[in-house]
Amino acid sequence: MPSTLPIRRCVEAAAAIFLAAIVAAGMPTQAAAQVLDATPGAGDLGLRGNDEAQTFRDEPPVAPPAGSPGGTNPVAAPTPPQAENNAPSIAPNYGRPRKLIKQYGPRKTVNPRPLPPLQPYQTAPEVRAAERKGGPPVTPVAPPPPTVALVPQPPPLRKSILDPNPFAPVGIDVGFLRVTPYIEGDIGYDSNPEQANTGVKGSAYSRVEGGAAFQSEWSNHELKGNLRAGYSDYFSDHNANRPDADGKVDGRIDVTRDTKIDLEGRFTVTTQRPSSPELAPGIPGAAVVGRPLIYGFGGTAGVTQTFNRLSLSLLSTVDRTAYENANLSDGSILRLDRDNYNAYGLRGRASYEITPGLIPFLEAFGDIRRHDVTPDLSGFVRNSTGAGALGGSSFEFSRKLTGQASLGYEDRSYDDKRLKDLRGPVVDGSLVWSPTALTTLTLRAATSFDETDIAGASGSISRRVSLEASHALFRNVTLTGLASFQDTNYTGIKLDEKTYDLGLKAEYSLSRWWVLRASYTLEHLKSTTPGSDYTQNVFLLGLRLQR
Fold first, then answer.
1. CA–CA–CA angle 490, 317, 443 (5° rounding)
2. N or C: which end of the chain has fewer CB within 10 A?
3. Residue 377 forms part of a structural domain
4. What is the C-alpha separation between 35 and 453, in angstroms, rounded?
């Protein structure tokens, strides 16, 4: 085969002559460089497919010079701008150097929000194990693995707390006290204002009542109370007009965590009915006119010491009862102020907290009563000494059943030996049962040993029991039914009085400030004394303003 070396040398010589002719003709440097770049080097005819050859093939075609055929301007045309942005060739470049493309890094995030910590999902083994053991929820110290964790959900919206009594008064702040005052005006009809057996005459009447409850807002110590006063004005029977009032103020001083001083002040204002056996004038043809007042004032002071669950209390009491003289129909005066007396008492109590809802207690008490004038109008010396004891418990069997009940015995002996001892069982208590959120039943029982000025009678024992049922038809409409029975028995004489009461009340709360009220009361007294029985029907409609 003939040798290829002479042929190769001929080709290289022809290429050199061709390039020299182009330079002599005035070809632009850049175009010549591109042609030169595309020319294979010595020993390489572009047949290997190397990188230089590939770059040459990828380069865009070069525009012909202005002096070449197809050009119109004999002056060389400038290099197009887009040629400068092309990627540089790795082949030798003898023209103007090209700019390299600027490389940009990853985009930076300004103030990135951190991801929330991971928490185990509810079906993770760790969570299920904690639930089986009854322990607190799992809170991982280190982030759990992705297989048992998820991004926590946003916290649920807080539910609004419903007010159980949206129409109750909110009160006002007076210094360190929260005070809830009220005033009420009523108009109604009473079928028997005098509570008499004969000569009964009904009358329309109006009633005004005002009062206030208050409660301290201290972290230590306590002061609270409830005050009330009212007046009834009868349009057709002014002799039946009467006031009534009562109040109590309790105070507690916390000397230490386990030592407390208890204080209490109280008062009552009430009246006696003209037909009462206590108001027998003893004058033929004379009768009591109007309703004589009875005033009661008293106070209590004592100390309570707590030893873990055991509490011991010792209280002293002072009370005074004063009677207003009665006016008789013949113009004379019945002296009732001779029956005024003071009572001084001492009361001790021990209680033990078995559970917060069951606290039994034992209580012992004693007192002496001293009258201002002895003997009384009937010739008896009524100074006396009394003592008694009782046991009971306060309880709270769930929120539906709460209260306190006690049972005991009391004995009272008199300085005048002609008067029999006044003795008998004592039952006191209050039981509140709420079968539903809308219905409340309240059962109360009370026993009291009272003074009298009836000749031959030592005193009277009154036992009272009442049942009250309240039901809320709506959040602002409440119906209340009341039934009570009281038995008053006099020791030493044959005198017994039984009183029956039935009542129905309705309250319609227009707002927290205004309450529309209506009530009906039926009262019947049956006595062993002739001419003392009576029946009374009372209707009332009023408006209450409270704050």
1. 55
2. N
3. no
4. 146
Residues 9, 80 within the same domain? yes
| Structural domain total, the chain | 2
Residue type, 498: K
| In a shared domain, residues 131 and 78 | no
Same domain, 129 and 80: no
pLDDT of residue 7: 60
Q: 345 and 367 in contact (C-beta within 8 Å)?
A: yes
Closest CA to 323 of 336, 342, 341: 336
Measured CA to CA, the distance from residue 439 to residue 481 in angstroms comes to 11
Per-residue model confidence (pLDDT) at position 118: 66
For the chain, how big is the Rg over CA atoms in Å? 54
Distance CA 258, CA 280 (A): 53
Whether a cis peptide bond, with omega within 30° of 0, leads into 116 is no
The pLDDT, as a whole number, for residue 35 is: 39
Contact between residue 289 and residue 239 where contact means Cβ atoms under 8 Å apart = yes
490 forms bridges with which residues in the sheet? 460
pLDDT of residue 20 exceeding 90, the answer is: no
Looking at the domain assignment, is residue 437 inside a domain?
no
Whether residues 28 and 81 share a domain: the answer is: yes
Say how far apart CA 72 and CA 349 lie, in whole Å.
129
For residue 329, tell me if it sits in a domain: no
71 and 137, same domain (yes or no): no
Whole-angstrom distance, CA of residue 92 vs CA of residue 87 = 14
Q: Which amino acid is at 487?
A: D
- Asked if residue 9 and residue 78 are part of one domain, the reply reads yes
> What pLDDT is recorded for position 78?
45
The span from the CA of 527 to the CA of 7, in Å, is: 158
519 pLDDT above the threshold of 80: yes
For the entire predicted model, the pTM comes to 0.69
- Does 30 reside within a domain? yes
Q: How far apart are CA 337 and CA 376, in angstroms?
A: 10
User: Of 110, 132, 150, which residue is a domain's last?
Assistant: 150
Q: Which residue has the tokens 């004693």?
A: 366
What are residue 537's DSSP bridge partners?
Answer: 522
Q: From CA 144, how far away is CA 261, in angstroms rounded?
A: 58
The residue out of 106, 132, 150 marking a domain boundary is 150
CA distance 434 to 470: 10
Question: Does the pLDDT value for residue 402 go beyond 80?
Answer: yes
* 120 in Cβ contact with 142 (< 8 Å): no
Question: CA–CA separation, 268 vs 321, rounded Å?
Answer: 9
Looking at the fold, whether 10 and 60 belong to one and the same domain comes out as yes
Q: How many CA atoms lie within 13 A of 170 on its CB side?
A: 8
Contact (Cβ atoms closer than 8 angstroms) between residue 350 and residue 362: yes
Q: Which domain holds residue 67?
A: 5-85
Contact present, 77 and 83 (Cβ < 8 Å): no
Do 9 and 75 lie in a common domain? yes
